[in-house]
Design brief:
Elements lengths: L1 E3 L13 E8 L3 H12 L4 E4 L8 H4 L20 H6 L9 H14 L6 E2 L4 E7 L4 E6 L4 E9 L21 E4 L14 E5 L3 H10 L5 E6 L6 E2 L7 H9 L1 H8 L20 H12 L5 H4 L9 H18 L4 H7 L15 E2 L2 H4 L5 E5 L5 E5 L2 E4 L4 E3 L2 E4 L8 H4 L2 E3 L6 H7 L15 E3 L13 H21 L9 H9 L11
Parallel strand pairs: 1-8, 2-3, 2-7, 3-4, 5-18, 7-19, 8-17, 9-10, 9-17, 10-13, 11-12
Antiparallel strand pairs: 5-6, 6-7, 14-15, 15-16
Length: 504
Amino acid sequence: MTTVLERSGAAPINTSPTQLDAMVIGAGVAGLYQLHRMREMGLKVRAYDTASGVGGTWYWNRYPGARFDSQAEIYQYWFSESLYKTWKPSERFPAQAETEQWLNFVADKLDLKKDIQFNTRIVSAHYQEDSGRWLVTTEAGERIDTQYLLACCGMLSAPLVDRFPGQSSFRGPITHTGLWPKEGIDLKGKRVAVVGTGATGIQVIQTIAREVGSLKVFTRVPQYVVPMKNPKYSKADWEQWGNRFHELKQHVRTTFSGFNFDFENKPWVELTPAERTDIMEKYWNDGSLAMWLATFPEMFFDEAVNAVVSEFVRGKMRERLRHDPRLCQILIPGPKDYGFGTHRVPLENGYLEVYLQDNVEPIDCRKTAIERIVPEGIQTSDGTVHEVDVIILAVGFDAGSGALSRIDIRGRGGRSLKDQWSQEIRTTMGLQVHGYPNLFTTGAPLAPSAALCNMTTCLQQQVDWISECIAYARRNGKHTIEATQRWRITGCSTTTRPPPPRWW
């Protein structure tokens, strides 16, 4: 078996702890900005990352077809007009390599890399009550003593790797999409299995289908999908966006989801059925997440409204599948599954049409679940062994809590964050956890940056709040910042999801 299922790193061992004012975990979108803000404030700060370079999600997720679903003009840093105007994206939805290049461009322009230690895995962080500081340890044994611990670990940094019995027995390459090797994997003419049809799986499937010899797609949860329109951007196009920098900067901070579109249509009840259809057609043809986040807010709260929107999308998908009954049953969510928009909606480019190819076969895991991995391939519950040469695991991440739970984080009284969250996850807006003073988090559980947000908008807001909170404490001679128990309880009780539960 050839496998790429681990992340490792090493750093020199030091005998005495490195003394810092602030330590940042992660060098992705949030980590780079957090490092920049701390340096601007004059703090002695250093960032640490398991990877060998900056990028976070965009460093690791280099699988075929990887790209983001936010338009390039808003997937941006807003603290620098110069950075915005200087970097010129090549298309509306740039691919992974270009996004990684952009983050390297930002890091180089701000000279951030000199304060980042790469190839370093954090294994523990213990709060020292006598000093009010955090003692952090790396996998190599290096120790860091810091007042503020700023965990910008990312929502997609803890891949779910060991999903099926027998993975180590497979005799070909097997890899998680979040750990795709830099050198790539030769798929040409091979028998390939993709497990999972979330946003990542969809991108992989539509990209490799014409290259592989045969493709078996193991799907359990069908997805509502929206076609992506991805025009190229010229220099003139970007100059136009650059001229709107200040307008966009203000606007994305006020919209429902941090995008540059919002729910601006008349209320559902004031529209005729024909007007509702016209609105859905308009946003469907936009080729972005506007179909999800700019049509009708009522679909998140009113089951009848959601049913109409969901059926509109199902109809579009049935047409593209040529009304093939088997494909429609496997690939399109039914009325009893879940409603459109209650999961993050994948954008795609020719994904459904892939299943019309003779070399592509979907396997419905709701009927025949994956039982185990065997040397020849994948065995399902009906006893069938699907023989393949390569297995691609697009099975997702332990999102939100996973990255932090994989570090031995201990707060007051030695309490364990992992143990605490295994019982119940509560945070203060995803920014702090009661009992863990001076620990700040971005993209964490119960943060507003969950599935509904343009991540650069939400992450920058969180970094700004953290930075301003620390600045306030320092101005006022405060050494410790900690969320109260009262806020931990009341904050969660007033930020629940809308009913009914089965939608979500």
